[in-house]
């Protein structure tokens, strides 16, 4: 499976947050589907509209991600 990368630093590891501010690590497939890194967890209650990069300060929508590193 191939994953979308950060438009700023080029890595494929992101997290999303819930209302409590808890974070969960995700990746985004080329089909723009958000998938959990740890499959034993659940995305319930997490805001999938804003992704945060684990490698830099970038955050934004999954539609802003790229297929390839810059
Ligand atoms: Zn980044």
Describe the overall structure.
There is one protein chain. The chain is an all-beta fold and 70 residues long. Helix content is 0%, strand content 34%. The chain is built from no helices and five strands. The chain has strands at 14-18, 23-28, 34-36, 46-53, 59-60. The protein has a five-stranded antiparallel β-sheet with strand order 3-2-1-4-5, with no helix packed on it. Strand 2 and strand 3 (34-36) form a beta hairpin. The protein is globular and about 35 Å long. The chain binds zinc ion.
List the SSEs and their pairings.
Layout: E1 14-18, E2 23-28, E3 34-36, E4 46-53, E5 59-60
Antiparallel strand pairs: 1-2, 1-4, 2-3, 4-5
This protein binds zinc ion.
Zinc ion binds at residues 6, 8-9, 11, 53, 55-56, 58.
Task: Explain briefly what this protein structure is.
The chain has 70 residues and is mostly beta strands. The chain is built from no helices and 5 strands. The chain is 0% helix and 34% strand.
Please state the average pLDDT score. 96
The H-and-E topology, N to C, reads as EEEEE
Shape, principal axes of CA atoms: globular
Quickly count the helices: 0
User: How many DSSP E strands?
Assistant: 5
- Structural class estimated from helices and strands: mainly beta
Question: What portion of residues is helical?
Answer: under 10%
Unreliable sequence segments: none
Distinct compounds present: zinc ion
Radius of gyration, whole Å: 11 Å
Distance between the termini: 20 Å
Largest sheet: 5 strands, antiparallel
The fraction of residues assigned to DSSP E strands is: 25-35%
């Amino acid at each position: 499976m191939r994953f979308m990368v950060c438009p700023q630093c080029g890595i494929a590891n992101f997290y999303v947050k819930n209302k409590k501010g808890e974070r969960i690590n995700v990746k985004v497939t080329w089909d723009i589907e958000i998938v959990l890194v740890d499959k034993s967890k659940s995305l319930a209650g997490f805001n999938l509209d804003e992704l945060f990069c684990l490698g830099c300060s970038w955050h934004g929508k999954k539609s802003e991600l790229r297929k390839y590193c810059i």
